[in-house]
Amino acid sequence: MSSTLALTEDLLRRPSVSPEDHGCLDVIGARLAALGFRNERLTYAPVDNLWSRRGSAQPLLCFAGHTDVVPTGPREEWHTDPFEPVVRDGMLYGRGSADMKSGLAAMVVATERFVARHPNHVGSLAYLITSDEEGPSVDGTRRVMQVLEARGEKIDFCVVGEPTSHERLGDTIKIGRRGSLSGRLTVHGVQGHIAYPHLADNPVHGFAPALAELVARRWDEGNEFFQPTSFQVSNVAAGTGAPNVVPGEMKVRFNLRFSTEQTVESLQRTVLAILDRHGVKYTLEWFVSGLPFFTRPGPLTEAVSGAVRDVTGLTPQFSTTGGTSDGRFIAPTGAQVVEVGVGNATIHKVNECVRVADIDVLSRIYERVMERVLAPLRLSPV
Ligand SMILES: [Zn+2]
Predict the structure, then answer these.
(1) What percent of the chain shows pLDDT beyond 90?
(2) N or C: which end of the chain has fewer CB within 10 A?
């Protein structure tokens, strides 16, 4: 069994449902310590984080990721035990196999090979691994970045091991992510008898024209690297359950995934203007779960894209689609951030799986990234 597969299976056996870590950070930390990394555990119970660094010079190339996984969902829909790794027909099954324990294993084993061949690499290598990426993400990467910033420790290049590939390993890498802004809207009306509408004020009717406009709106055209901004309603609730009562209020939750063409303020202004124009009576709470981030094509995108090409022959597409990632906490410090990992077709689903062969290939891609960034002086052939 390859070293990457063995480590992936070890991590998969640990049921680290967010924010649990179940010893994953111990395993990774021990492997890194053996290579001369200095480990620091930043624990904000129940969240656990590992910051581990080898060397003190710049540039600092950091691998980032998470040991936590999302819940299994209905166990009876799994064909295998989600926390007992099983290889079948070339696929490795288990919760976290794609998101993202195979990515963690690929990084660690790649680092072992790289350090063995380049013990005196330029700059520094680091790992920022959290047990809270799938949860609230407050005491995870965000908190570690605050600690690093407070002591002036700066990441220059960051490779996040999230699953980014579509059809083939390495066909897509992420160079940014859209922002996410949510609203919790309460539309106020007056409850009454449905046969006496002049004595009531129906909040559903009051909100409907505004909703139609919000849904139909073209928020922007996106740009070269981002899809257009999108508005979606996730929850609507109104009514007492009785068929003869006009409801007194309506609750609506919505979300905007937005490109770098927008800001939180510009979106909020637009939403408020639409609600006001239609005379909606409301209260509204906002939640920003992530600002958009973007790494302009440059040294790191070139290093990662070149590494994918060196190993697989594919030239990856640059993408900013999908949900948010912890890159949103790292990029604002000025770090270049690129995400590259295994296929994402089954993440968060039952029967999550990864192609076994891809784990070793990904590990070689990570090794090439390190060579391109931290070993510009080639070793003479052995
Ligand atoms: Zn993930």
Answers:
(1) 96
(2) C
